[in-house]
Fold these 2 entries.
Entry 1:
Amino acid sequence: MRHGADRNARGRRSPYRWLPAVLGISMALLVRAEVTEAAGFPPVVRGARAVLLRPDPGPLTIRITKRDLNIYEGADTLTAQLYDPRRRLIGTLELPDDGNTGRGAATETQSADLKVSCQMPGVYRLIIACSHDLVFGLETSSGRLMIEGDILLNDGNVSGKLCFPPPEGAFKVIAQALHEPGIQKLPLLDTKGTALHTFDLAKAGADQAFTVPADVGARDGLWCLDLKAMDVKIRVSDVTHWTFAEDAYFDPAPLRWMLLPYSEARCLKPGQSAELRFTLRNRTGQPATFRLDAAGHDGLVCRVIEPASPVALEKGEARTIRVAVQAPPTAKPGSVLEGIVSATAMHDARVVQSAGIEVRLWDPPASRPLKMPIVLERYRHENALFGYAPDYVANEVYFDRQNRPVIRQRTESAYVTTALTLLEGDRWVERSFVPALQAAYPGYRGIFFGGGFLGAKVAFDGENGAYTIVSVMTADRKRQSVLLYTPDGGRTYTTHELPGSQFDIEQFTGHNALAIPPPVLAYRQTATRPETFASVNDLLLYLPKKVNGKLTLGEPVLVSKQCLGSCQHSGGPASTATRDGKTHIVWGEVTDEKVPGVPTYVATYDHATGKLSEKVLLAYAPPINDVHNVPAICQDSQGYLHVVAGAHGEPFQYLRSLRPNDSSAWTKPVEVLSAGYISDKTDADGAGRQTYVSLVCGPDDTLHIAYRQWRQRVDPYHGGQIYAALSVQSKPKVGPWGPARPLVVPPVPGYS
């Protein structure tokens, strides 16, 4: 058993004892404002969870108790990691297996204490990592405690309440007795204690559902389920946080994503300064005013530049907070200086969030070659690990005909995009396309998934005109696909409507620099499918032209009436390749035939004749009727076509045309990867498991792909558990595909 938190707390002075004084936060007032008793729950919660705590500043003790169920074979170790409001790890505890790694009866409990000192107010996250073969509980000196995630309880000898905030409107509650001890009559109580429904859990493993009408029940407080036996599985629509006692409840919603990023690092020299940017978001559910504070330690100067404090925000409004930092001239090279920026709601001092500032007096590791793969840590990604702090927006980078970078603007939001960002000289500039959209669509409400989920490609013509496509949210709450064109580096834009809600545009992939406007694909849904990741679409090809200096889309060419759709959010694969008067299109189709995967086709449009060729079947991309499996196409220097048929957790398949710039005949498909995921059903090398293809061709005709790779038992990461790596592979002009090379290892195993 390890007690790393105790050793850390007792072995060195905390570097944050100065924070309350320099920020002017009266800890005594906060404590007096809300005197709370200890909170906790018995060892009944099954499996991994996050527990949210809101402790008073000062000492915090967490006693964690677990009981191994021993239903399955294997060790049942529990690891607990406590993170402060800036997502910094401040304590770790481990409870080992009970000594019985085989199957057998549940054993006695094991307990250990995690002790830390809380230096700032806010929400602390306790991450419980464990198998599904144990239950855990905890006692804490923090009076406020919420559990995040599924409600799965597994001890029929324990009774008590389960409390949650009722959602607005109608919602559904589903209850199930896990085993025979969980069989019971289970009442659902509203805020006033009125029983609105009683679940008759008469059979283990059987769901019982109740839909609460929108106008039923008092909702000015918590609702409860009165459990006679905590051997149940509960699902409540739109409820992600819950607790076992009403006086332990607090609402984490106003603090979630209130101040981002959680921490920001810069590598500076003594006396050097930098500007950091944070986003403050009002999630209180009402207009609110926030006090802004910033402070540094050991001579580090931190001050809020903009906006002036206090700052008033409307409900849901976000504002950029600019913070200037300067290292003292006397700072010792190789040292680390720390500071903080905080925001406090003026109407409620409990709505307070802090973000960390770290200044490192050395050159950033990101400025020199890094050892691959990059191994991310929980809450510590590129900036925290390497001082990576580019002065450009973090999004897909494209290059114009003069080899200058152009990036579509975005924020941490999946929805927001407002401009193209261009490098002019040594300065990045933003050229907004919002005025053009507002003029074209009165009542313009923003852009749907503008951050990149529907694609964030920028394409160019021979005159260096730039093109990008967005999905506009109109005044009547509809979505309209719009091609944006700028002939002058974003100083002016024109708008051009496209049908459907999905789209693609031909980007540069190595040997397809376009003199003409880039071909555009529109996916117009005509029917739904029973499969989760499938729909039926018309695939339409547009070949825009410039007429008297103005862009016109022209009439579309119908390529397919059975197209599966587009999947641009990961990899952004090219769906077309154009050269010497021919545009080659690849796509997948839905089918009811019993085939091993998505039928993947290619066809060619001849610009001179205006004719579309017959489609050619290239491969079957597994599994069937799954839009994850869209293909990618590119051309090499000689004009040969190269296609990689996508997959969803299976090997990609590769083909090459037999003649340059001709899609009528192809090599047989070959698997791109056959190793990397070892299980009891694979050979010693494992199997290839790939998703989200991206394909380009280099100057020497080497092909490169990037993708998500499922890996397991092939390297030291994540203890042999399955994880999703960002990997690359290459294929020389002559020769087979090389091995997978992981570029980025995620901070957690499983789906990420």
Note: The first strand starts at residue 2 and ends at 3.
Entry 2:
Amino acid sequence: MIKVLKKDIPLYDKEILQMGLGLNNGGLGLAKFIAPKVKKLIITDIKTKEELLSSVEQLNDFKNIEYHLGYHDIKDFENASIVLKGAGIKLTNQYIQTAIKNGAIIDTDIGLFFEYSDFPILAVTGSKGKSSTTSLLFTIISNALDDVIMGGNIAINPLLYLDLKKRISAAVLELSSWQLADLALHKKSPHIAVLTTIFPDHLNYYDSMEDYYDDKKNIFRYQKDDDYAIINIKNKYLFTSFLNKEIPSTIFLVCNFDEKNFNDNRINNNYPVKNNQYDNNLNDKGLNIENTNNKCSKKNNLDEKNLIDKNLDGENSYDKSLDERNFANKNLNETNMMVERELTIRQCISYLSEKSPLLLVKKEERIFLFIIDDFCEKVKNFYTSIAEYNNIVENLESQDIENFLEPLVDKNMIKKIKVFQLREPYNENIFAEHGKTNMLLAIAASIAFDLNIGKIFEGIKKYAGLPYRMQVVGRKNNIEFINDTTATVPEAVAASILALAKSRNIVLIAGGVDKKLPANSMVRAIVENVCRLYLLEGSGSQLIEDELLNLNYLTFESGFRDLKQLVEKIFNDLKRQDASLFTNIDLNKPIAILLSPGFASFNLFINEFNRGDIFNDAVQKLISQK
């Protein structure tokens, strides 16, 4: 068993070895936190002092730091009693293994933060949307409470807040798979865990998709009964964890039926239905689920027509024996044994239970909240908020709800479930449906944190968006410049393209270093929606180029190394209005020059943020020109 630091271990007389400094706030923040507390801090990094100069200069005030830069010395690890490693350094690393064999304590910044914290922690992870969801959730929580902090993988080391000696009411963190792997050493999980979506990522680091997701599971693995997990059950990996009862805490379910699924991220499963092909809908008249036997009032937009689908025998049925327990042990990777289908609202409702008391659904621009009444009583602000903010929330009448729910759940559950219709809060910084899914997840997490609906919606309206994530950085003439540099996986690029496709002509800058991820969705989105593609140099770019040529998509150029020059070239290409360069330009829509790479950045840039900063500088230079 690997030993970790505990907060009752005195540090003032200790010499500590820190492995990894870097140029971001992770290693630097850890050094700033630990240096004043210890006798001596040795920092080792394979980067040279010249490469790390900006970080080293920020530590000049600490005279007890000794640097071993440009190399790792095995003797440092043989002699160390405590080693603090950077995220992404595996426990199987030869130097870390040497320290472990010599009895050293091994820890990380995130592990220390959880160990030293005495306030509730809300954390977000996922392959896509975690930064946006984290920042939105922080905006909501900090709008309702004072002294809320945000940190983690979102470029802010939360340890730095602990030294400010002021009250912290809550922390909202973004956690990567690497940080969650480190957190498992402490066998701790956050009070509220949010999982946005899971698909293949970092497969140049992990041996398999299963290993990657196993690290992600640490966000809920060590939760208790009184903790909460907010999961997007439209994602097949998260849905499988839910069905397999892997989540020990209270689970809030979220499903955005309006968000398009990609082929390699669809749910493959036999759903608990019997001889039925359910196709539940929420249309412009409200809830619209077919049933010819129940007489539902039309009041509050509940339509009596088509209340629930009929099965092949013409009877309304919900077979209780076909619930999720029958699927707990199924191997969902055996896709040849599974039927590829979309979740329906009826199926989602069937998963409500004392363990999963809340379901948040979006369908055709309507948001519905299904919640078990007993749980409403536990969330003390909930009913108060409904009364105070009836202009935001419409409470559907109980008789209508009983009629609606009767065919969906057993009769003992009918009176326990309340349904509320939420009016979607408008915010121009929340792009398209994947942004709306993030919003649903943040709403559910905020309810779990006992905020009332009015405060939640007020916070959403204040959300200003996040730098480097679908950030509009400038406009000139009919051209809009959008910075999405943190889209470092192909799936994220596909989502960004689809978010813009209806309203803008898209000129895309993409490419970089391959991360061994499937790119089918990105290629398809490019072929169907991008007017012209410019590829930065990199192994991932070559893969995209080959796929596009196979599909006879020829509207692209590749091999670019200078992003500033590329932005200027694209702008000039557009100014010339050369029809041969661009396909399917709609003159009624503005043009978006979108930086959304889909791949790693380190062949041409320090990191993805450096790539984004260079793009921003190039845009500002263009805009300032007359």
Note: The first strand starts at residue 15 and ends at 19.
